[in-house]
Amino acid sequence: MRRLALSAAALLLAGPAAAQTIAITGGTVYPVTGAPIPNGTVVIRDGRIVAVGAGVAIPAGAQRIDATGKWVTPGLFESSTNLGLTEVSQVDDTNDFRLNQSQEGGDQVAAAFNVSDGINPRSMVIPVTRIAGVTTAVSRPSGGLIAGQAIAIDLLGNRVEDMTIASPVAMFASLAENSRAAGNGARAGQTMRLREVLEDARAWARSREAFERGDTRDFSVSRLDLAALQPVLAGRLPLAVEVHRASDIQSVLRIGREYGLKLVIVGGTEAWMVADDLRRANVPVLVKVLANLPESFEVLGATYENAARLRRAGVQVAITSGETFKAYNIRQEAGNAVAYGLPWEEAFRAVTLAPAQIWGVADRYGSLEAGKVANVVVWSGDPLELLTRVEHVIIRGREVPLVSRETELRDRYRHLDQNRAYRP
Amino acid sequence: MRRAPYALVLAAAAACAQGQARPAATPPAAPPRPQAAPQPRAPAPFPSTYRPFPSTATLIRGGTVMTAAGQVIPNGQVLMVDGKIAAVGATVDAPAGVTVVDATGKYVTPGVIDTHSHLGVYPSPGVQAHSDGNEATSPNTAEVWAEHSVWPQDPGFIRALEGGVTTMQILPGSANLFGGRSVVLKNVPARTAQEMKFPGAPYGLKMACGENPKRVYGNRGGPSTRMGEIAADRQAWIRAQAYREKWDRWDREGRQADKMPDRDLELETLAGVLRGEILVHNHCYRADEMAQMMDMAREFGYRIRSFHHGVEAYKVRDLLARDSIAGSLWADWWGFKMEALDFTRANLALVFEAGARAIVHSDDPTGIQKLNQEAAKAVEAGREAGVTISENDALRWFTANPAWALGIDQWVGTLEPGKNADVVIWSGNPFSVYTRADRVYIDGALMFDRSDPRRRPRTDFEVGLFPAEAGR
């Protein structure tokens, strides 16, 4: 069994997408964009969803997955991870999510740093995540004032190009306490520095030729960074800013207004306290639900009800685990959002369609609709319940074996016998 | 208090049987006395001043009662009188005037117990001024006591209470080979750590092996290797053996004040382990290291009560079962360092199946609030691996089994007559993600009621600093 599964995994990694037709039948289909469909069918062909509904004709020769008594949903979309960019946190050589620009003398700005080339499609963290029903993730840089460019990926593929949905999908930054060094130790220093960098990028864009001739003043960041910030200044590329204190969120909104930025708030622990500001600015928030401790003075207002209160105020919310190794806990986060006041439909939307909308890929992701990329999960029951099992995971129309290093170790030690250490 | 502290009971019993006892903490040097008058035994220092909060006789009825002792009683009843469980069953005889709590549709379980918390010693906010969990000045700080770092105003205690936690062990961190003494606390609002100390609970000794001590001390005089760590451990145990023998001899020879040996706080704790009075809680990730720790315990004649973290416990679960060592484990933490690489989500289930005591622990101020959810994840992972686990089995992972690991299972951990009335009423099945603790009783007193703002305690730290609706 194990060998079979492994060779299937190897095949998945090796070849280009084989033309494949899959029909998932008999389950309750949760398309997210519409009401649940009892005894519904989802038909997948060549990596796309081609039909969703009750009484849909099943193409001849389709591989059938019987989902009777089960739930069929879009794959989960995790919005803030370092997936593919790390293997072991404390083994530095495996960490590729941080450009060391914040060392002594660094400028804290790595806008040109796109993580894409650092993505390892064979990272052992990816299978652990996808067999939990997480099919799509934003893999982001971390650290400094402007950490760099994140990409959105599907969690299957041999080359990063085969996984990429959007690159870059956003520019990640931080005005939280973790980037205080960028502001010489003061909040208004951080905002001053961010404005300086944005002003430099603007000025550079107006005088590129003079810059190349050496006829401009010095800029405070590199040419590559200045160029990389142009889509942010144009309001095309979201600036995803980690920030927690209510007043710090308001500072970010202020800067967003000044420069016409398209903002996403990451973390936003006290966002519920400035929900009206966020709604008026039409700025979404990536919420880690399980955060209710005043762990620092920027999160004194932490509450498990953050997501529910933001939604009640009309703010768009996506839920994130805030984890890389444990990104699979995104469903536990969403379940707890329900326990603390968010309607189930809203919570499930916050891990599927809402992130797809926030990252501008909702035309292809986030729901079960004809034409969308076939990222589909079959669950034994309610996906947010912890006793629910993942039964099938389909990414880009291909069924993924439910195997990871973690399940292999489990199977390797399932029975302890006389030859307990001798295993092929 | 209703019971004499556990350690004193042990000491008294030993004294009766063999005319000797552990050299309890001794008073400051007094003037020499005539040889006929032996040095009196000093009371244990820093005694618990815990008193149960006021309670009334209470009957919880209508809910599904999960006793953690094997019984699941649909539409069951739990009677609490004078802070104790008086009766549990389908119907019980309740005295007139008892307070009746309708738990229809809800679940009733013992209070949640965590064997591994740093609440109070690494409190919120986690500013440097509050960093009191690792006395990282020497690889052996067996002399420190966690209770001397505990800040009772840590808001994390209250959050844990709202997650159903009634008892927890506060441990020193894992920077040191010998991190110091742990303390077992009742999760009650208090001004002092003494007001939280679980009366009679034995002390624990936090030990650590593997990456942390060698990372912290590798460039500070060592140990810098795993073999160096074990050598340092063994040297300490050799000194502890000699220290114990010196005090035992003094005790045998009549406890003459002028011949009393010098006290040494470090060795007092280690000798307490050798006497079986202090329970060893051993931070250890890798299978091979756990086996080394077991052999070291055998060499010096002490017992390891529980391994903590044990990411590879499933590989040596037969050895844990053989030596009756509990595994205080996470449901799914991994990846943060090399010794946490070989995880499987089935770890808890496989350890359980092997007959060792499985415990789901937190080591985390958020995780401690949701130990029921952590257990649920581990149940599902176990079932995927083909392990048969009932909900009552899994309930024991965060009630009865941690009570045993902390040496307090005669008082808490199950819903059985005579035990302390530490009870949680859950809004639904505790293994559902949607379930929350509605009411939490400690020694029969209602400490938290989700529906009553007056029964939702706040710490001093939260006063005047927080937005009104924060923190829930």
Fold blueprint:
The complex is a heterodimer of chains A (424) and B (472).
Chain A: H1 2-14, E1 21-29, E2 37-45, E3 48-53, E4 63-66, E5 71-74, E6 76-81, H2 125-130, E7 134-139, E8 146-154, H3 160-163, E9 164-174, H4 187-206, H5 208-213, H6 223-228, H7 230-233, E10 239-243, H8 246-259, E11 263-267, H9 275-281, E12 285-287, H10 306-312, E13 317-319, H11 330-339, H12 344-349, H13 353-358, E14 376-379, E15 390-395, E16 398-400, H14 405-412
Parallel strand pairs in A: 1-4, 1-5, 6-7, 9-10, 10-11, 11-12, 12-13
Antiparallel strand pairs in A: 1-2, 2-3, 5-14, 7-8, 8-9, 14-15, 15-16
Helix pairs in contact in A: 4-8
Chain B: H1 6-18, E1 58-66, E2 72-81, E3 84-89, E4 99-102, E5 107-110, E6 112-117, H2 155-162, E7 165-170, E8 178-181, E9 183-186, E10 204-208, H3 211-217, H4 226-252, H5 265-274, E11 279-284, H6 287-300, E12 304-309, H7 317-322, E13 326-329, H8 347-353, E14 358-360, H9 371-384, H10 391-396, H11 400-405, E15 423-426, E16 437-442, E17 445-449
Helix pairs in contact in B: 4-5, 4-6, 8-9
Quick description:
The complex is a heterodimer of chains A (424) and B (472). Chain A is α/β, with parallel strands linked by helices and 424 residues long.
Descriptive report:
The complex is a heterodimer of chains A (424) and B (472). With 424 residues, chain A is an alpha/beta fold. Chain A has 14 helices and 16 strands. Chain B is an alpha/beta fold and 472 residues long. Chain B has a domain at 112-412: Metal-dependent hydrolases (TIM Barrel, Alpha-Beta Barrel). Chain B is built from eleven helices and 17 strands. In chain B, strand 1 and strand 2 (72-81) form a beta hairpin. Mean pLDDT of chain B is 93; it is low at 1-28. Chains A and B meet through helix 11 and helix 14 of A and helix 2 and helix 9 of B.
CATH superfamily of the domain at 112-412 in chain B: Metal-dependent hydrolases
Q: Under the CATH scheme, which class of the domain at 112-412 in chain B?
A: Alpha Beta
The radius of gyration computed from the alpha-carbon positions of chain A, rounded to a whole number of angstroms, is 22 Å
Kindly report the average pLDDT value of chain B.
93
* Percent range of helical residues of chain A: 25-40%
Q: What spatial form of chain A do the alpha-carbon principal axes imply?
A: globular
Q: How can the largest sheet of chain B be summarized?
A: 8 strands, mixed
Structural class of chain B: alpha/beta
Query: What does the radius of gyration of chain B come to?
Result: 23 Å
End-to-end Cα distance of chain A = 14 Å
The gross shape of chain B turns out to be globular
Assign a percent range to the helix content of chain B.
Answer: 25-40%
